Amino acid sequence: MKWFNQAFICCGVVLILTICLNTPHQSRALEVLDHTVNFDKPDVKHSLAELTSNAEKGDVKAQYHLALRYQQGQDVPQDQNKAIKWFEKAAAGGNAKSQLALGIFYGGGIGVERDYVQARNYLEQAALQQEPEANFYLGLLYYKGLRVPKLYSKAKHYFELAAQKGNSDAQYFLGRMYYNGQGVAKNYNKAFDEFKQSAQQGNKHASMMLGMLYDNGHGIKKDVKRSIYYYTQAAKQNVPEAQLALGIAYLTGHGVKENKHEAKEWLLKSCRQNNNSACEMVSNMD
Description:
Helix content: 55-70%
Distance between the termini: 20 Å
Shape: elongated
Radius of gyration: 22 Å
Number of strands: 2
Strand order of the largest sheet: 1-2
Number of helices: 15
Strand content: under 5%
Order of helices and strands: HEEHHHHHHHHHHHHHH
């Protein structure tokens, strides 16, 4: 009976994780649409007065760095309104990174009312200047259907442009599209390749997916110990599905030595991130 219960739980984790993953992450980094955006460091070689003077004279680079100063509170009180004002001036002057920043702000409702149409306009301007993150966010708009039709073909196009420039989020989403057969034929081998490239850059969600692929032998030879390695990488970065998978692994001895205490620790971490399956398992352990 114990073997049956363990086998049931191990099989159940695949279903639980599949459901979770198929359901549509102030400093230099901001969380927008579930993704971390890292902004450039502002120019600190010039004084605020000098930057302001040059910005007011129409120097686009100065406008961009002045915006960053206010956005990050670098030697000035943090002021999102002033940051947006200078980003807008720099964007009008053709600064791609300012166009990207405004696309992110409008897409995330940061300092402005959320407006996906305005976000798309700015992102398209930045993408025309080969800004890879702009291509990624355009792909995300079409992937999720945010005030545009949900078009996987367009999402794939933009993700590929960003992925070619090494954008790990774009690689991850391409992997998801191949894994789920979204707008493309389901292909675990291609999914594995995209997830691997993404995970090598530290993408925690890609590590989670590599764990699943190794666990199930999809696109790669089944290797439970390798799956545990990737689950652990993702779990340490607070991916709740990975914490759930590790909890189940330690609970059942799946690829690791059975350890109820370790299992409960990981399940609790997942539960604290509102993973109902983990919460239910913890309650059944008490």
